[in-house]
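Recap from last week: sequence in, structure out.
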Amino acid sequence: YPPIGLLREPIKLTIEGGRIVKIEGGREARELEDWIKSFNDPNMYQLAHISYGFNPGAKLTGDIVEDERVWGATEWGIGNIGPRLVPDIPGGVPASSHTDGICLNSSVWIDDLQITDKGRVINPPELAELARKIKG
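Predicted structure tokens:
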């Protein structure tokens, strides 16, 4: 795993075509970038998955299995993509390693459509309405 843990400052990943093309931030961003580079594997820059937290009862605990479910969180996986995530690609998409990062209250755009705003679902409208009903 990258030598970081709980962040003291934001790290911004710019993703284009499913790949990390830029890592911005302070010291911890440089540590993450150095860790990824250390594998000398271009597949370490691929986005493996994004998960959205929609459990209103989940609490931030430091255990990624619960943290990824916290309402308004996004979990970003990079590197190795196992075959269960891409069943149409036998063997998945291999990379030297894999890591996940949890973001709280994040804002996410897919192309030009904003999906979440500071952890609040705003698009598509059907999902935004469902989220309002669940979260209250």
